[in-house]
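Give me the fold.
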Amino acid sequence: MLAETSCACGDFHDEVTGIIFRNPFRDRSPENSADRFFRDLRDGKCDVDQALCGYALGGHQVSAWRFVNREDHGGHAVLYYKLAHKSESGDAGSLTGEGAVEVIRNGNEWKVSSYSSYF
């Protein structure tokens, strides 16, 4: 019999858990773009697509995040995170949510194109 957990298990739970190996020499530009997005959310700001900002600021703000996984697909990447909801303290013990940020390459920049989270 499986026990219930307090996991915020969404569509990308498998990508956030398990053993993950990352290339230490990877281009971190996509991660830097997502990090700026999360810093802005934490501070109550959002400067991407209006619909995306409505979703992100309307109950999906974060107080803390930790990068855990990444999938590269040519001109875009999906980045997976453990998250703490804005209403939580934001310390390492409260990273109970999960999130995915998709970024798209636009010239030499990476722009956030989607965000989804479960708390």
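The mean pLDDT is 86.
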